[in-house]
Every structure is written in C-alpha cells, then in structure tokens.
Amino acid sequence: MFGSKPSGVLVRDELCHVIFDNLPALGLIDEGLAVPGVHRLVELTGGQAADYEELAFDTATGRLLMLIESLPDGPPFRACVEEYDRQYRLVASKPLDFPWNNRTRTSKA
C-alpha cells in the first residue's frame, strides 16, 4: 500500500474498510489496530478502479456503495456510484445526474 492515497473509511463488522483514490482495492484493517491483525487488501472486481472518494454500506441488501469522484469522460464531469456484493464484485454502476464543468467540484456537491 506504499504510495496509496486513502480517501474514505467505513467501520463495519469490527473492520475499517478503507478506499483509495489510486487503487482498485479495499483495505480491511482490524478496528482495534491489533498487531498482528486481520489487515489485508481485497481486489474490487469489475469497477472503474480509480478516483474513489466515499463509501457506504446498505444493510438491507448487504451491498457496499462506492462514490467515484469524477468519471473520465468530461467535461462535463459527473460523479458515479458503484455497488459491490459481499465478494467485492461489481453489481451495478450508475453515473449521477448532475454534471459539473470543473472536475474538482463533482464530489463537493
């Protein structure tokens, strides 16, 4: 994980789930930071693999939701939400309906 840039943290099931701007992986870190602990990286399969900004967990579906700061197809730029199952495989991807002309403004909405 050297050189990686963490951008969001969610604590669930006694683990800190950490997403990164520049990695196609999710960091899983023991919430007590125990050494040794259950720290590891898991690959996110099928998604964009970059520019992740925030994450949330849907308890009703058991799905992990990841916000991508900006899709690379702009301008105009749009944020996107990716949905992952419990095995960290992409289930759905949906661009948000509010475009921005400035790439750095998408996740600040």
Kindly report how far apart the N and C termini lie: 29 Å
**Number of E-type strands:** 8
Largest sheet: 4 strands, antiparallel
CA radius of gyration is 14 Å
Stretches where pLDDT falls below 50 for ≥5 residues?
105-109
Please give the domain count.
Answer: 1
What is the molecular shape? globular
Mean pLDDT: 79
Structure commentary:
Helix content is 0%, strand content 43%. The protein is mainly beta and 109 residues long. It has one domain (6-108): Thrombin, subunit H, CATH 2.40.10. The strands form 2 sheets. It has a 4-stranded antiparallel beta sheet with strand order 1-2-3-4, with no helix packed on it. It has a 4-stranded antiparallel beta sheet with strand order 5-6-7-8, with no helix packed on it. A hairpin with a 2-residue loop joins strand 1 and strand 2 (15-20). The model is unreliable at 105-109 (pLDDT under 50).
List the helices and strands and how they pair.
Layout: E1 6-12, E2 15-20, E3 25-30, E4 40-43, E5 52-58, E6 63-68, E7 80-84, E8 90-95
Summarize this entry quickly.
The protein is an all-beta fold and 109 residues long. It has strands spanning 6-12, 15-20, 25-30, 40-43, 52-58, 63-68, 80-84, 90-95.
